[in-house]
Design goal:
This protein has about 550 residues and is of the alpha+beta class. It has four domains: about 120 residues, no CATH class; about 90 residues, Helix Hairpins (Orthogonal Bundle); about 200 residues, Aminopeptidase, CATH 3.40.630; about 130 residues, Gcn5-related N-acetyltransferase (GNAT) (Aminopeptidase, 3-Layer(aba) Sandwich). It contains 20 helices and eleven strands. InterPro entries: Acyl_CoA_acyltransferase, LPG_synthase_C, PG_lysyltransferase.
Length: about 550
């Protein structure tokens, strides 16, 4: 912890000093040189070299300001660029006016960066680096071509007209001559064009730097070998309602150094969002979390864990994570579930009525036949259209035939033999518990249809010998509703109360509560408050399959 604290202090100090050098360079480039030093320097260096010191000081200052915050991200590319620019900065100040004070400041920061070289390990995305280099080269060539063609064609806009050679020299002089080589516009458009050269150069260089500093993007989630290894670990150690979802095709995998544990995650932007806790032996838990932290740091990601159990909260906090309660999971004890007596009086009327009408629930075991899957697809499409949204991912399954073929599927058949609704359910491997996934139904259906389906599910799996049935997460339930809650949880509680009109959080919670479940808390584990916005955006992107607008539609 002490070593990590010292590293953070070092990072902050070098980032602040780098930003300070950037500001000093920009100010120094636009202020006159000291007369005595400048007079002496004129004896040794021509005007063009001294003027170039001004422009290089300005350019290095501009880029160093951009790089300062990226040093906090421990970016290796930012470190390399800062080293190069500080060296240029030292010589620029000496060439433009023997400004040794500014050179000494740049030298101090350069020395600190060299001493801290082992800290800057965060990689950038290689395709983005290549794109950034291409953009940088293209920016220089385009700016030169833009200025040259403009000066050649814009006769009458300046005090003199340019031939091709003079147009090239004038464009270069815009960056390497202190007085722009005596350029004097005669019209407002001429003045606009001269200024636009700087705007285009600054915009394209900024874009190139941003590309160079992008976090690592994974093109392919996982290899077939990684998927098989993850499946073996999950089947042997999985013990939560999320275990089966870690094996879906949108996940990437990080394995512990021992190879016994796995973290299923989705990288989006700067967020690497893990689904649930690490899966593996308890004694391997700390090692895999610490290794995942280091892995994310190298890729310039923020590690986060979504829907974690309460079991390892102390471990997460001891490793520097923050914990936020995000809801509660509804778990029905099947051994005590009954439709008899007072407990089942709210369900019996719907069950009896729909049974008399000829509705029935059938359970289909994997592998599911293609014919049934083709009948389920129109029901799913109708439900999605009614919900005005798209398929969710990450912590849920989606209508994929390969996935559904290996699930248990419960189907509500109409008296005519059609399909009114269906759901797929999944086992939890080491827990004798069944969990619900997709729930799809027609846009119009008989009253009490959901009660009919869910009570049939509970009865069926009770008879099959399961101990419990998991209804999944009730978002924001029980969050921030007691005086000891953290401030951020109280903000979520406010949203729970005031966004219910759009998302019906409370209605869904009340419906699940009809089945008298026990409620277990679930958490979001994230590295820091500053990282939280990136984590939330990454989570939304993972959950929505990058269809952000669909995610925010009411009812989606």
């Amino acid at each position: 912890m002490i070593k990590n604290f010292k590293t953070q202090i070092g990072l902050w100090s070098v980032a602040v000093l780098t930003g300070l050098v950037g500001i000093v360079n920009v100010l120094s480039a636009v202020t006159p040189n000291l007369y005595g030093r400048n007079h002496w320097l004129k004896e040794f260096l021509p005007f063009e070299i001294r003027a170039s010191g001004h422009i290089f000081a300005a350019l290095t200052g501009f880029v160093l300001l951009t790089l300062a915050t990226n040093l906090l991200r421990r970016k290796r590319v930012a470190w390399l660029l800062s080293i190069s620019l500080l060296i240029i900065s030292i010589f620029s100040h000496l060439l433009k006016g023997l400004d040794y004070e500014e050179s000494i400041l740049s030298g101090i920061v350069l020395g600190q960066l060299i001493l801290m070289r082992h800290v800057f390990t965060a990689q950038s995305d290689r395709p983005s680096i290549a794109r950034g280099v291409r953009v940088l080269i293209g920016a220089l060539l385009f700016t030169l071509a833009y200025g040259t063609v403009g000066f050649y064609l814009l006769d009458g806009k300046f005090t003199e007209n340019f031939n091709w050679r003079e147009a090239i020299i004038q464009t270069l002089a815009m960056f390497f001559a202190e007085d722009n080589w005596g350029l004097q516009p005669t019209t407002k458009f001429g003045e606009f064009f001269a200024n636009s050269i700087y705007v285009i150069a600054a915009s394209t260089v900024t874009f190139a730097v941003v590309m160079l500093l992008q976090p690592v993007f994974l093109a392919n989630p996982a290899t077939s070998i990684e998927r098989q290894k993850a499946k073996e670990i999950v089947e042997h150690y999985g013990c939560s309602s999320l275990a089966a979802f870690t094996l879906l095709s949108d996940k990437s995998y990080f394995f512990s150094p021992s190879g016994k544990s796995v973290i299923a995650y989705v990288p989006k932007g700067r967020g690497a969002i893990a689904l649930g806790d690490p899966i593996g032996p308890i004694e391997d838990r700390k090692e895999v979390i610490v290794s995942f932290q280091q892995f994310c740091q190298r890729n310039d990601w923020y590690p986060a864990f979504y829907q974690t159990l309460p079991d390892d909260i102390d471990l997460y906090t001891s490793l520097g994570f923050r914990v936020l309660k995000i809801g509660e999971e509804a778990i029905v004890d099947l051994q005590n579930f009954t439709l008899q007596g007072k407990a089942g009086k709210n369900f019996r009327p719907s069950i009896n009525r729909l049974t008399k009408l000829g509705y029935q629930v059938n359970f289909y075991q994997p592998p599911i036949a293609n014919d049934l899957l083709h009948q389920l697809k129109p029901v799913s499409d109708e439900w999605l259209k009614m919900a005005q949204g798209s398929e969710k991912r990450f912590s849920l399954g989606w209508f994929d035939e390969t996935y559904l073929r290996n699930c248990i599927i419960a189907v509500v058949h109409t008296p005519e033999g059609g399909i009114a609704a269906f759901t797929n359910v999944l086992p939890e491997y080491q827990l004798n518990e069944i969990t619900i996934d997709m729930m799809r139904h027609r846009s119009t259906m008989e009253n009490g249809m959901m009660d009919f389906l869910f009570t049939s599910l509970l009865q069926h799996f009770k008879e099959e010998g399961y101990d419990s049935f998991n209804f999944g997460l009730s978002a924001l339930a029980g969050v921030g509703d007691n005086p000891e809650s953290r401030r951020l949880e109280k903000v979520l509680h406010y949203l729970y109360e005031h966004l219910n009109h759009f998302y019906n959080f409370q209605g869904l919670h009340a419906y699940k509560d009809k089945f008298r479940p026990s409620w277990e808390p679930r958490y979001l584990v994230y590295p820091s408050l500053t990282a939280l916005p990136n984590v939330v955006v990454g989570l939304i992107r993972a959950d929505s399959g990058d269809r952000l607008l669909d995610y925010f539609k009411p009812g989606a």
